[in-house]
Amino acid sequence: MSIPSTSTTAPVAASPTPVAAPRRFGPVGLVLAGGISVQFGGALAVTMIPRAGSLGVVTLRLLVAAVVLLVVCRPSLRGHSRTDWGTVVVFGLTMAAMNGLFYQSLARIPLGPAVTLEVLGPLALSVLTSRRALNAVWAGLALAGVFLLGGGGFSGLDPVGVAFALGAGAMWATYIVFSARTGRRFPQADGLALAMVVAAVAFLPLGLVESGTRLLNPVTIALGSAVAVLSSVLPYTLELLALRRLPASTFAILMSLEPAIAATAGFLILHQALSVTEALAIGLVIGASMGAVRTQVGRGRARREAAREGAGVGPQA
Fold this sequence. Notes:
This protein is globular. By secondary structure, the protein is mainly α. The termini are far apart. The chain has helices at residues 27-52, 54-73, 82-106, 111-118, 120-129, 133-149, 159-185, 190-211, 218-243, 248-254, 257-269, 276-310. The chain contains 12 helices and no strands. Helix 1 crosses helix 2 (54-73).
């Protein structure tokens, strides 16, 4: 699947949205903030699974996120082409599948290995879409760290949980593609809000079948709302912003930071200790992500200098 350039910024609407904000934060900062938010939200969601079931947790997460984004963004339903709507629908269904598969894996395997397996999807996307050999090197280094973080193998894990995590990874790669496309076709976070409605409606029957009236418990609703904000509203908005300013291949390598963040969240919230090997793996992943970002920054600087020289402007200007 070819990925168009993500450098085009979508038009800015007058309606208030959560993405009218932070130009003072670079795209890498947005990715990091989103990763921290989603992984701590995932750790909180693990504690909810016995209470509401994995499908019930996803249902609450998507429903609350859809309501919040609709209220904040107030997206317009007019002025969009059939292709725009098709992009939003696929984006929404991808989010629903990604969340459903991932939470099914969390019900069977620990958070750290689940995220480690899931991130293989973005890493594969990075290798397939990058046009530079150096990016493949960074992706390979990140992959080594990911497998090291998983203990060098996953033979001791529930195979069904592993399959769900890998499926979630494939959906995550698809999510990156359609998040970028949605960000280009809709102003601000309007496309994200509409896609979240699609995801919530698509997933609602599954949650009702599994959890039923358990979804109406006030404590469950409160916890589900917190998971929705941490794992959907904040990270998806920040990622949509970042994908307007980063190539998909660089963004995908940055996603390899997710297992490191998940391991930290597991340590702080779920009391899962970090070994020396895991710390080394985290270091490899961080190093690979930093290398990918430096490569992209260097490319951007080279383009700007070439443009200045082509316009007859000296490097000191």
